[in-house]
């Protein structure tokens, strides 16, 4: 296992999650991560010397989560699956807004952005990161269940780097609820781990069991089936690309809610 991954795993192993379900386990994990996060100690998901890592942090790590992928890798996914499908008239939603790293890129491009998260501490971090974006509204989720009263409100919704930590039942629950949130013809970005990608298989093989601290692995075929059963049509799928951190490990799909 690469050094940076071992360091990050050591941090995650300090979070005690005894007999917790997927939802409460994620809440405990990400509250702890957000509370303990420091920019100068961020655990980078890139292989660098200590000197280069310090420079990388100074240049690239500004909010919680920036350490999980280079700006170029993040922006490519957004340029492929988000930016072409939103504009200043779009009301958008993010499931698992975390520290606001993706929202800070999306908020300037949409009319309104609603950010949902089960972690109170992460929402505190995102509130700090997004204070210059008055069009962002943050909502704490008590369960893995989106609030009522939003049916058909959103033209676009996305969950970036969130579903890898959710078991299949929670993934499907969110997908069904996302379908209800979207207006007819609305789109959603879904981002999961991918057993068929080289980076996904490598991580799976090094992980002894399903874990909230690690990933819940699926194949694109499984994701497509869940999306279909939730009422979506898959409009676009990512291709495996070793040159991109996410495409080398994960599966990204653009889903459409049929217009009728």
Task: Characterize the structure shown.
This protein is an alpha/beta fold. The protein has one domain: Rossmann fold, CATH 3.40.50.150. It has helices spanning 3-13, 22-36, 50-60, 71-81, 103-106, 120-129, 168-181, 198-206, 220-229; strands at 91-95, 112-117, 136-140, 154-159, 182-193, 233-237, 250-256. It has a 7-stranded mixed beta sheet, with helices on both faces. The relative contact order is 0.13.
Furnish the topology, listing elements before pairings.
Layout: H1 3-13, H2 22-36, H3 50-60, H4 71-81, E1 91-95, H5 103-106, E2 112-117, H6 120-129, E3 136-140, E4 154-159, H7 168-181, E5 182-193, H8 198-206, H9 220-229, E6 233-237, E7 250-256
Structural class: alpha/beta
Largest sheet: 7 strands, mixed
The N- to C-terminal Cα distance equals 48 Å
- From the 3D coordinates, which CATH architecture would you assign? 3-Layer(aba) Sandwich
Identify the strand order in the major beta sheet: 3-2-1-4-5-7-6
Return Rg in Å.
Answer: 17 Å
């Amino acid at each position: 296992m690469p050094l940076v991954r071992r360091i990050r795993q050591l941090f995650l192993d300090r979070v005690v999650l005894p007999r917790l379900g997927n939802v409460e386990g994620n809440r405990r994990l990400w509250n702890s991560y957000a509370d303990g996060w420091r920019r100068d100690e961020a655990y980078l998901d890139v292989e660098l010397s200590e000197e280069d890592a310090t420079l990388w942090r100074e240049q690239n790590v500004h909010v919680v989560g920036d350490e999980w992928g280079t700006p170029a890798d993040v922006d490519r996914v957004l340029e492929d699956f988000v930016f072409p499908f939103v504009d200043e008239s779009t009301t958008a939603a993010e499931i698992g807004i975390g520290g606001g790293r993706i929202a800070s890129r999306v908020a300037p491009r949409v009319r309104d952005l609603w950010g949902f998260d089960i972690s109170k501490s992460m929402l505190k971090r995102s509130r700090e990161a997004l204070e210059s974006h008055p069009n962002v509204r943050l909502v704490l989720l008590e369960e893995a269940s989106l609030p009522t009263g939003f049916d058909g409100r959103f033209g676009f919704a996305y969950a970036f780097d969130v579903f890898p930590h959710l078991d299949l039942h929670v993934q499907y629950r969110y997908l069904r609820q996302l379908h209800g949130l979207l207006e007819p013809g609305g789109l959603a970005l879904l981002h999961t781990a991918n057993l068929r990608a080289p980076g996904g298989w490598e991580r799976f093989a090094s992980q002894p069991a399903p874990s909230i601290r690690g990933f819940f692995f699926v194949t694109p075929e499984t994701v497509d089936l869940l999306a279909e059963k939730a009422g979506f049509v898959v409009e676009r799928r990512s291709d495996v690309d070793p040159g991109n951190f996410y495409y080398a490990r994960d599966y990204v799909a653009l889903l459409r809610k049929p217009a009728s």
